Structure formats: structure tokens, C-alpha cells
């Protein structure tokens, strides 16, 4: 009787899975195998997707699991994501507990598709020195890409892996990577010089989430935020009092809100302090195609420009 029951459950599960997959195919195309001998690559988010495209060029076909405007911290893979990952020769994830924290969706996806760490699965942040959360020193801050020097490390790791997995096009990958990193490094050094010209008491970057630790260290600003990581306890009275106290002890004239979070809490801070919200910043996702910030370079250029303009107000 027990065996019969298990068999029935298995059949029901199979039918449910197939039905969900067929429904998904109607609403979202399942990726097809790459043509022209392109290396099939899957990335967990749009930032990594763009980096791989910049290095790989026409020799890679890239599929991003988490689409633009979607939070990569908590995600539920869809049948199309599972199919793409199963077919991929290379899978890049951020690492630093971005995709493996919370519901651990990435670990489940890799297990389901039988992919192996350092054979098909690679963390783009492998050579980055992580920063810890201030509220929990056992956890790392995943937002390393917001420092362009770390972004260059991501590109170098992506290049290393692509050359290893597709040696036939290694020269092209290296050439593309060198040109791309020169461009990123120029923006990085120019921005560092600009931020140094600001008075120290104006270099306070106030955001909703504490995602700018790497950015702050790279461009010599002091990060201030309402909450440190995305949790259910966002914008509590104690958090609001703390950030307002920091603002009043500085000469900061502008506030910022991330495009990926609700602006309600920062709007309350603006009302309380009389300061304006300067701009929306891009953190966990690139902007939609055709809009400012739709590539990693443009995303960083947007953030650096808007933050500098806001902090230079007097």
C-alpha cells in the first residue's frame, strides 16, 4: 500500500511539473541551444550578464536568470531558468552570499541541474576581499561590484573562465577584456580624484539600504543608511532616528534612494530633515535596455555622477 501511495504521489508531482512547465512556455520562451558554436553561459543577474557579453562578444550566448528590476537576493527559478542552466557550459554567480542566502535558491538550482562548483559553476567575486555586515559580522556584504576596482576583478575572473572553457577563442576574450578593463579603470580613477575634492563633512552618502560599503571605501565617502540589509524590519523608528542623527551631524545636502526599494522610508527622512532626494541609484540590477544605466559601465557612471552632484551641493 505504501509503495502504491508513493507511486501516486510521484505521478501527481510529474503531472504538476509538466503542467507548470507548459504554462511557463506559453508566457516565457524556453532558451534554445546556441547557434554557430557559441559557448552557452548562464548568469544569475543582469550585471554579470553584461560583463560576460563585454568579454565574450559574439563567441558567447548569455542567459540571465534574474531579470532586470528583480531582486536577486530572493528568487524562485522558473522552468526556463532550469532548462537554461541544465544546457549551460558555464554558470556565473556573484557569490558573497548574494544568491545562496535567504531561500538558497541558487544552491537548489545547481543541485537540480547537476552542475559542479569550479567545473561549470564559478563565483565572479572569487578574488574580491569581502566586507562584513556591521549588524552581523558573520555575514558578508555581497555588493562588491559597486566598487569599480572589484568590477574589474569580476571581469578578470570571467575572462579566466571563458579562456579555460573555450580556448579556441582565448585571444578574443583577452583582447576584449583588456579594452573593457581600461575603460572601467579610467572611470574609477577619475571618480576617485573628483570625490577627493569634496569637503569631508559633505561626503556622507545617505541611502535606504546599506549596500554602498564597497563604494564608500573606494570613493572615500561615509555610508549612512536606514537599514543594512533587506529584511522585514525596514524603516523602524529606531532606524529612522539613527540615520536622522547622522544627517544632522554632517553637512550633507541630498539624500538618495535605490531603484530596487520602496521610497516611502526615505521620503519620511526627507520630510523630517528638509533635504531633497537627489536621485534613484542602481544597485542589484541594471536599468532596462535603452535607459541610462543599462550596462555595468553606464550603471556605475550614473551612480558616480548622481552621487557626486548630490554631495557637492552647498
TrEMBL record:
Q: Which domain of life is it from?
A: Bacteria
Which protein family is named in the record? Belongs to the bacterial solute-binding protein 9 family.
Q: Where in the cell is it found?
A: Cell envelope
Instruction: State what protein this is by name.
Output: Metal ABC transporter solute-binding protein, Zn/Mn family
* Secretion signal span: none
Organism, scientific name: Lactiplantibacillus dongliensis
Q: Which UniProt keywords apply?
A: Metal-binding, Signal, Transport
Amino acid at each position: 500500500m505504501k509503495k502504491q501511495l508513493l507511486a501516486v504521489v510521484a505521478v501527481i508531482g510529474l503531472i504538476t511539473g509538466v503542467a507548470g512547465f507548459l504554462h511557463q512556455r506559453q508566457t516565457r520562451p524556453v532558451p534554445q541551444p546556441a547557434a554557430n558554436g557559441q559557448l552557452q553561459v548562464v548568469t544569475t543577474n543582469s550585471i554579470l550578464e553584461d560583463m560576460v557579453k563585454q568579454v565574450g562578444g559574439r563567441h558567447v550566448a548569455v542567459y540571465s536568470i534574474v531579470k532586470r528590476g528583480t531582486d536577486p537576493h530572493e528568487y524562485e527559478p522558473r522552468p526556463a531558468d532550469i532548462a537554461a542552466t541544465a544546457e549551460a557550459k558555464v554558470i556565473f554567480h556573484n557569490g558573497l552570499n548574494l544568491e545562496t542566502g535567504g531561500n538558497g535558491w541558487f544552491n537548489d538550482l545547481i543541485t537540480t541541474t547537476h552542475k559542479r562548483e569550479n567545473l561549470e559553476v564559478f563565483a565572479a567575486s572569487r578574488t574580491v576581499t569581502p566586507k562584513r555586515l556591521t549588524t552581523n559580522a558573520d555575514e558578508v556584504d555581497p555588493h562588491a561590484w559597486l566598487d569599480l576596482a572589484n568590477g574589474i576583478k569580476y571581469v578578470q575572473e570571467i575572462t579566466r573562465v571563458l579562456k579555460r572553457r573555450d580556448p579556441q577563442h582565448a585571444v578574443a576574450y583577452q583582447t576584449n577584456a583588456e579594452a573593457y578593463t581600461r575603460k572601467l579603470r579610467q572611470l574609477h580613477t577619475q571618480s576617485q580624484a573628483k570625490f577627493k575634492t569634496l569637503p569631508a563633512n559633505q561626503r556622507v552618502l545617505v541611502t535606504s539600504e546599506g549596500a554602498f560599503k564597497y563604494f564608500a571605501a573606494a570613493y572615500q565617502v561615509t555610508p549612512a543608511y536606514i537599514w543594512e540589509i533587506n529584511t522585514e524590519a525596514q524603516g523602524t523608528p529606531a532606524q529612522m532616528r539613527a540615520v536622522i542623527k547622522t544627517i544632522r551631524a554632517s553637512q550633507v545636502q541630498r539624500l538618495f534612494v535605490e531603484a530596487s526599494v520602496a521610497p516611502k522610508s526615505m521620503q519620511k527622512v526627507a520630510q523630517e530633515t528638509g533635504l531633497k532626494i537627489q536621485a534613484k541609484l542602481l544597485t542589484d540590477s541594471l536599468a532596462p535596455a535603452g535607459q541610462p544605466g543599462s550596462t555595468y559601465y553606464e550603471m556605475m557612471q550614473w551612480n558616480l555622477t548622481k552621487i557626486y552632484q548630490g554631495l557637492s551641493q552647498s
